[in-house]
Amino acid sequence: MSVRYDATELQNFASQLFQRAGLARERAEVMANVFLQADLLGFTTHGINRVASNLRWLLDGESRREGEPVVLADRGNCFNWDADFLPGPWVLTRAIEQALQRLPEQGVVTATIRRSQHIACLAAYLPPIVEAGHVAILTCSTPAENTVSPQGSRDPLFSANPIAFAAPAGDYPLLFDISMSVTAGGYVARAAREGRKMPSQCLKDSDGNLSDDPGAFENGGSILPVGGADHGYKGAALSAMLEVLSMALGGYGRADASAKDDDEANSVFLQIIDPRVFGQRADFLRQTAALCNLWENSRSDGDAPVRVPGQRAWAARAQQLKEGVELYPTIVQDLQPWAEKLKVPMPKPLSD
């Protein structure tokens, strides 16, 4: 059964853990906030759930505790950084801050980052961008990762290659964070841990046979691309596009022998757009609000109402800020040993 925790207390807890692991307070608070935002929006596999792995990377030296990203290119409206394994949530937050500072002059700012330690949930970075009235496109890929097989192949080639998008609309933004695989690796790992099958045959074993058994993936298999067994060529094409945007534009990826040893380090593509450089903000909002309203009010083909991407996540964020953050039970179990090791008191659950 899930338990709720006060959002501020949960963020302070994560921040203290990162500080005990050697991060400066400012960086630790940024990290904690990103992971909290993921859980607020309902992305439970990449929120506080990722604190433990980030602590391990910091203590093992796989993540750099100090230093700044190296600027490889900068033309004002475009820049490319080498993070050299700085913590992903911190370095990406820095890039977003830099892009937002430049936006009033540039209108559209695009950035790439190579060798960023894992950036976790993409949607977690979008609320401040969309609340400022801007459009955001964010994607990442992992050069060292081969988990998703192209259509017609039994060999895993792509990483999960998520893409997140947000645009202001009416009562809630149009917002989504989706992988170019039928399911995320985090859900496969969770099913394996709990001894469950996957909801569908979204995996292939090493011989190319469809499977719903997480063990098939763990034993040399792969995850199907978006579109599944029938239309996976669409997901594979989109995966290739996102690897071009993140790896190729960043200038570092699968072509580099050293990338094979980068573990979970990400290549990142970020673009922030101010709609006002194209016309009146009211005209933009009129169109996005109309789209969401038409979508939401379209006829349902079942008992459940039609749901627009962003609608549930935005409502969950507001509710959990007010009533407490609901954590998946195993997250607390995984953090207990770290709290004891780093001598940080566990957050207290909210009473019913």
From TrEMBL:
<dbReference type="InterPro" id="IPR003767">
    <property type="entry name" value="Malate/L-lactate_DH-like"/>
</dbReference>
<keyword id="KW-0560">Oxidoreductase</keyword>
<dbReference type="InterPro" id="IPR043144">
    <property type="entry name" value="Mal/L-sulf/L-lact_DH-like_ah"/>
</dbReference>
<protein>
    <submittedName>
        <fullName>Ldh family oxidoreductase</fullName>
    </submittedName>
</protein>
<dbReference type="Pfam" id="PF02615">
    <property type="entry name" value="Ldh_2"/>
</dbReference>
<dbReference type="InterPro" id="IPR036111">
    <property type="entry name" value="Mal/L-sulfo/L-lacto_DH-like_sf"/>
</dbReference>
<dbReference type="InterPro" id="IPR043143">
    <property type="entry name" value="Mal/L-sulf/L-lact_DH-like_NADP"/>
</dbReference>
<comment type="similarity">
    <text>Belongs to the LDH2/MDH2 oxidoreductase family.</text>
</comment>
